[in-house]
UniProtKB/TrEMBL annotation:
This is DUF3888 domain-containing protein. It comes from the Bacteria. InterPro entries: DUF3888. Pfam families: DUF3888 (PF13027).
Length: 142
């Protein structure tokens, strides 16, 4: 109950509303979803490192990435069936503070035996919008 109050405020019946809109949130677990989530966990450190560089020009704090704000949008095997080189594309909503969205980014990684991961494409799709920031977090913006 205590944690519920933490997220919902004084009114326990009010839903927690985040300023970062999560991607489609499945309501059932499936083997494919488990494997996708494990892969996202594997890639999080590399994504965080890139975002710390990119968002340094916008923010005083390094944004964080939560696995539920990562959407796998494409996976390919460029060398065909049962080859072990993959291209994976992920859309990410980085956040600061209590899940305040600071943008949107797209990563494409090459995953190959080793295991080896290499960023092959990065797109910064959306920057922080100062108008959407809560007033008590504006100090995080540059």
């Amino acid at each position: 109950m205590c944690s519920m109050l933490l997220f919902t405020g004084a009114n326990a019946n009010a839903p927690f509303v985040s300023s970062a809109a999560p991607f489609d949130n499945p309501h059932e677990d499936a083997r494919a979803l488990q494997l996708q989530d494990m892969l996202v966990l594997f890639l999080l450190p590399a994504m965080r490192e890139k975002l710390s560089q990119v968002y340094a020009r916008y923010l005083k704090a390094t944004p964080d990435i939560f696995p539920y704000f990562v959407q796998v949008t494409d996976i390919q095997r460029p060398n065909g069936f049962r080859s072990f080189e993959f291209l994976i594309t992920l859309d990410v909503i980085p956040t600061v503070g209590p899940h305040i969205s600071v943008g949107k980014d797209r990563f494409t990684y090459k995953i190959s035996p080793g295991p080896s991961i290499k960023l092959v494409n990065y797109q910064h799709l959306k920057s922080p919008d100062p108008q959407a920031f809560p007033p008590n977090y504006l100090n995080l913006l540059k």
